[in-house]
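Entry 14. Structure prediction run on the chain below.
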Amino acid sequence: MKITKQILPLTISLASTLLLVGCLNDIPTADSSAPLEEEKAFVEGELMIKFTPEVESMLQTRTDITRSTIPSVDEVLEAVGAYELERVFPIDSRREEITRKSGMHLWYVVRFRGESVESVADKLSALGEVQRVDLNRTVKRAYNGKATPLKLEDLTRAGGSVGAMNDPLLGSQWNLINTGENLASKCIAGADVRAEGAWMLSTGSEDIIVAVLDEGVCVEHPDLKANIWVNEDEIAHSHEDNDNNGYKGDINGYNFARKSGVITWNHYLDSGHGSHVAGVISAVNNNGVGIASIAGGNGTKGGVKIMSCQIFSGNVGASVLDVARAMKYAADNGAVVLQCSWGYVSGTANEYDWGEQGFHTEEEWKMGSPLEYEALDYFVHNAGSPNGPITGGVVVFAGGNESAPSAGYPGAADFAVSVAATAADFTPAVYTNYGTGTTISAPGGDQDYYWDYKDDDHNYGEVGCILSTLPTNVSESGYGWMEGTSMACPHISGVLALAISHASELAISLTPDQLKEALYSTARPIDEYCVGTKSYRRYVADIGPLQPMQMDLSLYKNKMGAGQVDAAALLAKIEGVGVPMHFPNIYVPVGEEYAINPARFFPEGEDNEFEIVIENQEIATCRQSDGKLFFEGKKSGTTGAKLVVKGSRTEQHDFVITVRKGANSNGWM
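Output returned:
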């Protein structure tokens, strides 16, 4: 077996040599302060291996061991000075069966001393018992990210409230509602995500979770806090794993950069990027404060929840190992949309500007980053629920900011949604990647294009960027502008979360492929705007209007994916897609109760009445309280049951109750 050792630059909306910022403001400048220490491309003394299924029974059941008990493997480990063998994905008692079915339990981290990573990789990859070897690349920021803060005095007068929500800054959010007058010029009415039309159908559901893989989200931000995911089975700042999911104190997500349940956002090197992304998706709507968002509720009803899977913290970045763990964590803890404003530099990027090119083909990426691929594949197939509004998960990536004619991986993979960026007049943003691998476009801002917008309060087109939430250590007002495909990306994540929310409200269940097909088929064509040339001033925020440039828009025709996202059309379409939900089979331990809300399985569910009939009440009983059904396991066995729903119409759902030791909501452990 041959291992691919290619080390490639990675582009993250936060940035790195492995992750390079998807925010256009993150270009290197002469006055950048506190440059990050140069790091090696991969972690020395550490790599990941995946064993073959044939030796599964020989592996120790503990997650951290010193030897595998596989003779050929242990012989190599002994020779290279290995001192630890740790399972990549910690045991989550609720999800272990699914983990094993997917083969993810076969991945281990090997830690060793005295030999190079390449040498140990060659030795292990030669063994028949090892099917994959992956170097643990470092994920780091190459440049200091920066936002343009909103001034404190602009909090109440910038833009003004428009449309259905009373958020005072909504008038400055052309990306949500573009009246054609948001900017002084180069602005077209409707060049937005059509949020206002979508809000007539849904404003988001608290049952839907979006995992943000990024810098830490400011979970205390007054315009975000109510829509932050809370792990009800965990205790904040706990040193114990109270919910037995393998992570201690993960109350709002997990800090994979610092291996802690405490999400952080206030290091002096943090850019606020995670909070900015989160605000686009689900800042609290109609609360009379700050901005509006795509899926942030309507003031009386909460919006989609944001789970912070932190992969950057100040000058500390995660490794590919940590990123893979974050992906699986998101799926295992309820997220159905994976928001990833990062990716490798495009394989067609200009090497003079961007250094070594990234992966050129999907097969090359899969071979060069097998753990990352399998973690994403796990999310796609194992997020969601067969008893929920989506049976799987959707992964959304920024397409990249290298002006390259192909998107970067992983976003360019067939199963992912890869997002290009547009300006407020439907034209491609001057920095956006396009072409091969690009699937859809969304507003991302275009500061260099709006360089000539200037008044007493704004300089050089900042309002042509995306306005969203920021921590107060980045912006005293708590808000500011950023741009990039990393800003276009959360628009798609938010729209998808809104669509899944609507499916939940309609009590229908979609597959990820059905949802993506509806997303693409309802996008608005923008090829008519890909003609002529577009003038801009490169790096205007840093050096002023000194570099005039011309962009040939014809190069982008038919290459911006399906077109610009249309949230209103998407929500209208999914009403005819998917299948009605069915009340699920129930698994409950002996002597314990299992609670479930029946309303979420039926349209207008809260207005229905529910009656439960259990055939054998010696096995299980049921009581109703506060709108929930509480099933109690009396003794081991199985019994039939039926749920009679009485509302605008009467219907009956037959289901089975199984009582046994070791039961959980997914079946058996």
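Residues 148-233+242-574 form a domain with the Rossmann fold fold (CATH 3.40.50.200).
Filed with the rest of this week's runs.
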